[in-house]
Design a protein that fits this description.
Keywords: Cell membrane, Glycoprotein, Membrane, Transmembrane, Transmembrane helix, Transport. By secondary structure, this protein is mainly α. The chain contains 21 helices and no strands.
Length: 449
């Protein structure tokens, strides 16, 4: 499903020309086609928290896939741009559900030693979806692109219904202890002794039940620190300008004066975006979350500064930049690489790690809604900022944001590598913990995300 999320998020970039041509869409209508996805995701995020607590993580993921299937069918059979509005809003609701639920599902099913590596699977597959959409965009137009997206939703429905279990933590929260044990056996393998992990889950649930926390306790002193860290990471993720780049990649290259075809440049960025997540997968449980966030913010700051300088020379100083036509492509390649190493996947990963178990549903719902609200702001304001401030000031603004993101990481973000969810919760509440040193013996998850 993460492949579908990536594919549908990138859809407006390669489909831009054919959508404008066939539906006679202007700038305002096109901005809503792009902007309704994050707006719908805000609603999906708000509904997702109660959903994962009441019907479960697995059922919520299935529900999101149904939203994708219906939305893409509307897109495929669109007769005017109002169909596109409905489709993008429904896709957004599905994205909101899925982007909230995946980090929680993976955080609750994967052992600490490999949680970073396997927790990045959704991001990796999402970037593969972006690349697939960019590649097909060189050959196909809007309707065919939507049809392929519909086909991508079907395998997830089949596999997830019949193979993937609900999380043990959800079962134990509903006092379904036998189902909890069965889920653990599936995840760890029948030959593994799950007694210790099962007992720890039951004990942790009893402790959480005694606290009797709920939505009203989101903003208590004990919960504010992890919640604010999570919200801040989501803010900096989006105000790096990444979704402006993904949604408007082709537009950026058209305005750059580069001698390379815009669709080719877009595809190259998609390739780098995908490959960089494999690098992150290899490093995250070796270097840890914070080191990758430092690398991410530093590389993005340099690239955004360079892009701003290029457009300043081109648009403000009115100098010939033909010999420097490689700068936009090179800058966006390194920008995509830096983002996918750190501030792309890690805020979502840490959302599933640092939020206390008792408020995880409503807190994750708030964080997801906040993330997609920020995405909506960025996607709607990017064309306006370009028109009023120019490319140079816009990219410099995003550059300042990623510098602030790096400073925030140094001061406030905890390292969670190798810690259990219970230990992370204790760490953020000021209690002493120790890192786990045992080697995980985890049954590999099928690549269905």
């Amino acid at each position: 499903m993460s492949m579908v999320i990536g594919y549908t998020s990138a859809y407006t970039s390669p489909a831009d020309f054919s959508l404008r041509r066939d539906f006679k869409i202007g700038e305002n209508e096109m901005s809503w086609v792009g902007g309704l996805l994050p707006l719908g995701a805000v609603l999906g995020g708000l509904l997702g928290g109660p959903s994962i607590e009441n019907i479960g993580r697995k059922s919520t993921l299935l529900l999101s896939d149904v939203f994708f299937l219906v939305a893409l069918a509307v897109n495929y059979f669109a007769r005017d741009y109002y169909y596109l509005y409905i489709s993008r809003a429904l896709v957004g609701v599905g994205v909101g559900f899925a982007s909230l639920t995946f980090p929680v599902y993976l955080g609750e099913t994967i052992q600490p030693e490999v949680r970073g590596t396997l927790g990045l699977l959704p991001t990796t597959l999402g970037n593969i979806g972006i690349l697939l959409c960019f590649l097909l965009g060189n050959l196909l137009e809007w309707r065919e692109l939507a049809g392929i997206a519909m086909l991508l939703t079907i395998p997830f429905l089949v596999i997830f219904v019949w193979i993937i279990p609900e999380t043990p933590r959800y079962y134990v929260s509903k006092d379904k202890l036998e189902q909890c044990r069965q889920s653990l056996e599936w995840l760890r393998g029948k030959k593994q002794d799950i007694t210790k992990e099962f007992d720890e889950l039951v004990r942790s649930q009893k402790e959480q039940a005694l606290k009797n926390e709920g939505i009203k306790d989101l903003f208590t002193k004990a919960n504010m620190r992890p919640l604010l860290i999570c919200l801040s990471l989501m803010f900096f993720q989006q105000f790096s300008g990444i979704n402006a780049v993904i949604f408007y990649t082709t537009t950026i290259f058209r305005g750059s004066g580069s001698t390379l075809p815009p669709l080719l440049c877009t595809t190259i960025v998609g390739v780098v975006n995908m490959l960089s997540t494999f690098i992150a997968n290899a490093l995250i449980d070796r270097l840890g979350r914070k080191i990758l966030l430092y690398i991410s913010s530093g590389s993005m700051a340099v690239c955004l500064g360079s892009l701003g300088l290029y457009y300043y020379v081109k648009d403000i100083m009115k100098l010939d930049v033909t010999q420097f036509g490689f700068v936009p492509l090179a800058s966006l390649i390194v920008f995509a690489l830096g983002f996918s190493l750190g501030f792309g996947p890690i805020p979502w990963l840490m959302m599933g790690e640092i939020l206390p178990a008792k408020i995880r549903g409503p807190a994750a719902s708030l964080a997801t809604a906040f993330n997609w609200t920020s995405t909506f702001v960025i996607t709607k304001t990017f064309p306006i900022m370009i028109a009023t401030l120019g490319f140079c000031v816009t990219f410099w603004f995003y550059g300042v944001m990623v510098v602030l993101a790096g400073i925030f990481t140094v001061i406030f973000v905890p390292e969670t590598r190798g810690r259990s969810l219970e230990d992370i919760e204790k760490l953020l509440s000021g209690q002493k913990t120790r890192r786990m040193s045992s080697v995980a013996n985890l049954k590999p998850l099928p690549s269905t995300f």
